[in-house]
Amino acid sequence: MTEAVEPTALDHGSITLAEGGALLVLDGEIDKDVVRHFRVTVRPADWPARVDARGVTFMSSAGLELMVHLARKQKRAGGELELVEPPTSLRLLLNQTGLSRVFRSVPAPA
């Protein structure tokens, strides 16, 4: 079980650092307000290389832009952003936008 630190929850969605800051958990509707709140709360230097998107129900262009920034940060460091089991709706969106090539989907830990 993950323990949340640095929650950025709003009424409709949240972005939370978990596992001691090693995992970013996205939940609910990830829109411009949720992303803005996250960016104000968490410094880019603290952005992790893994994103758990299993709880995403909607992602706006602001959410996609955040994902691209997370991936670029990892690429500059010589790594790759891991996206933990994105839901079907998010996988379709990533495929339609061509962003599925930017992230590596990984299974959730047992």
From TrEMBL:
InterPro entries: MlaB-like_STAS (IPR058548), STAS_dom (IPR002645), STAS_dom_sf (IPR036513). It comes from the Bacteria. This is STAS domain-containing protein. Gene3D superfamilies: STAS domain. It comes from Klenkia sesuvii. It holds the Pfam family STAS_2. CDD domains: STAS_anti-anti-sigma_factors. Residues 51-110 form the STAS domain.
